[in-house]
Specification:
Strand content: under 5%
Radius of gyration: 18 Å
Order of helices and strands: HHHHHHHHHH
Shape: globular
Number of helices: 10
Distance between the termini: 24 Å
């Protein structure tokens, strides 16, 4: 896969991509965090280990660094801690637990820290296998669940739907965090640290060689 070309052509289609002071500070703080030795601030150490493996399954090393090499895992953990509301934090924890439990059951392992990429990849793939109609039904179920929780009601979410919610959210946050990283921002996307002439309407191929703009 030519990920460099894919990223160049990706617009800011994810709704998260807003350059708020909080977001920029999170991106800045992740730059100096050494890979594979970070200590999660929201997730547990075990959950952080699983997260690092999962983001690298989604974006492995190719002609560009892997997701963990540009600290996407650190970014997601800090975003969850500093930006997510309590209900969304709880939902992330709950859905991740159900995802991890499925990987443990399928692999026959007892400890999440022992899960390998080979154990996690099939669960991730099966959690994202649904067609558009099936996904639409799952989103309706998720919305009903989150509304019930917000209203203080007791609600349960099916394990399969929970795993889909986690995998889908993680995929989106991984791509978003990767695009927001310093390396991708400066070396893959169109990067202009000092703005030049404002061109309100121009040919993208001529202006940036077809690249989406960096943050």
């Amino acid at each position: 896969m030519d990920r460099r070309r894919v990223l160049k052509n990706m617009g800011m289609s994810l709704g998260y991509m807003v350059a708020t002071p909080t977001l920029l500070s999170i991106v800045q703080s992740c730059k100096s965090e050494p890979a594979l030795t970070w200590t999660p601030e929201f997730l547990t150490q075990t959950e952080g280990t699983v997260l690092s493996k999962l983001v690298d399954i989604i974006l492995p090393k190719t002609d560009t660094p892997s997701a963990s090499e540009v600290q996407v895992d650190v970014f997601i953990d800090r975003f969850a801690k500093d930006v997510m509301e309590k209900e969304k934090q709880d939902f992330l924890k709950m859905s991740m637990t159900k995802f991890t439990n499925k990987a443990l059951a399928d692999s026959g392992k007892e400890k999440a820290e022992d899960l390998t990429a080979e154990d996690l990849e099939p669960v991730l793939a099966s959690s994202l296998k649904y067609n558009k109609d099936e996904q639409a039904e799952m989103f309706k179920t998720i919305n009903s669940y989150t509304k019930a929780i917000a209203n203080g009601d007791t609600a349960e979410l099916d394990d399969e739907v929970s795993r889909f919610a986690f995998a889908n959210n993680l995929r989106g946050m991984t791509i978003w965090g990767y695009k927001a990283s310093e390396y991708v921002g400066e070396n893959v996307l169109a990067y202009l640290p000092v703005p030049g002439e404002y061109v309100p309407c121009g040919d993208l191929q001529e202006l940036t060689e077809g690249k989406a703009w960096s943050l």
